[in-house]
Design goal:
The protein is mainly beta and 64 residues long. It contains one helix and seven strands; from the N terminus they run βββαββββ. A five-stranded mixed β-sheet has the order 2-1-7-4-5, with no helix packed on it. A two-stranded antiparallel ribbon has the order 3-6. The longest helix has 7 residues, at 16-22.
């Protein structure tokens, strides 16, 4: 799988929320595109990710 252009080996499918936690993103303040389709936050628990998927993850940062 690829996350933000970097290769990552995924030995078995995970839910998107599990993957985000495992990779240190958390599920708050992020937007995820899976295979060029935006995944709604409400679907992070039920969306499975596989080794063949391509993810783009954007983390929102506040400031002023």
């Amino acid at each position: 799988m690829k996350i933000n252009g970097e290769e990552l080996t995924l030995n078995s499918p995970l839910s998107l929320s599990e993957l985000l936690e495992r990779e240190g993103y958390g599920t708050e303040r992020v937007a995820v595109e899976k295979n060029r389709i935006i995944v709604p936050r409400a679907e992070y628990e039920t969306t499975q990710v596989y080794d063949s998927d391509v993810l783009e993850i954007v983390r929102f940062v506040g400031g002023g």
